[in-house]
Amino acid sequence: MALPKLNNVPKYQILVPSLNKKVSVRPFLVKEEKVMLIALESQDPQQIAMAMLDAVTACILDEVDTKKLTGYDIEYLFLQIRAKSVGETTKVLLKCDKCEDQHETEVTIDLSKIEMKGQTDNNEVKITDNIVLEMQHPTFMSMMKNEKAIGFDKTEQAFALIKESVMSVMTDEERIDMNETSHEEFQEFLESMTQEQFGKVREYVEKIPKLTYDVNYECGKCKKKNTVVLEGLQSFL
Ligand SMILES: [Zn+2]
User: Fold this and answer.
1) CATH of the domain at 12
2) How close is the Cα of 91 to the center of ligand 1, in Å?
3) I want to staple 95 with a disulfide (CB 3.0 to 4.6 A). Which of 15, 57, 77, 102 is the partner?
4) Would you give the DSSP letter of residue 100?
5) Which of 219, 30, 215, 212 is nearest to 115 (CA)?
6) Sheet holding 166-170: strands in order across?
7) Is 110:233 a contact under the CB 8 Å cutoff?
8) Is residue 153 part of a domain?
9) What is the pLDDT of residues 93-122, one digit of tens each?
10) Full residue range of the structural domain in which residue 184 is found
11) Could you list which residues have their CB under 5 Å from ion ligand 1?
């Protein structure tokens, strides 16, 4: 005799930040949690990213091409679906910057209160009178494929994020697609910029929305009040 099917899974509406549109999702089931746990144990950033994308994709009930969603969309969806699956709160350890041994205090985060902060004004960065970079918010997929973007080296991460944010380089005569430009050639192009030109590119990247949560808490040891801004998915896992 076959076991009965358990198909009374609840549905929720969750916002996709870059689309400013809500989609129907179901919570993570045991099968997704299992894949996530195996990926986390591997400590391989690429495998973790892949498991996250797969889990989010499986839980979205509407027609959405998750391969085209931005990095922050997938991170936000992942945390919100997780909140619906295993609980609305998570605990993190925060180091006090007011006492000598940087005492760690356990702080409870309300996942439903995580916000997206940041906004880019326009998608063009003018480098010289006749060179303009066409910019975009990188997709989760492109970040995942770029090993440096999800690696542990902060400088390489920053460069990779810039690489994935530049869609094309436009001159008066042509539009050069970044998909057709090698990593090395792009690196050389970036390194030939003046500080000021590079600053403009970095400014764009810094304004790309990210998960943000403001915390006010009292240190368990020195009792002083701390104000911290948590940013990015890593802060909440
Ligand atoms: Zn303290």
Assistant:
1) 3.30.2220.20
2) 18
3) 102
4) T
5) 212
6) 124-128, 131-135, 166-170, 175-177
7) no
8) yes
9) 999 989 988 999 999 999 989 999 999 988
10) 119-206
11) 96, 98-99, 103, 219, 221-222
CA of 234 to the centre of ligand 1 (A): 23
pTM of the model: 0.89
Q: What is the pLDDT of residue 14?
A: 95
What does the pLDDT read at residue 147?
81
State the total domains in the chain.
2
d(CA 147, CA 93): 28
Regions of the chain short of the pLDDT cut 70: none
**Alpha carbon of 22 to ligand 1 centroid (Å):** 41
Kindly report, residue by residue over 192-214, the tens digit of the pLDDT.
Answer: 999 999 999 999 999 999 999 99
Distance 231 CA to ligand 1 centre (A): 21
Shared-domain flag, residues 82 and 159: no
Any domain includes 226: no
CA of 94 to the centre of ligand 1 (A): 10
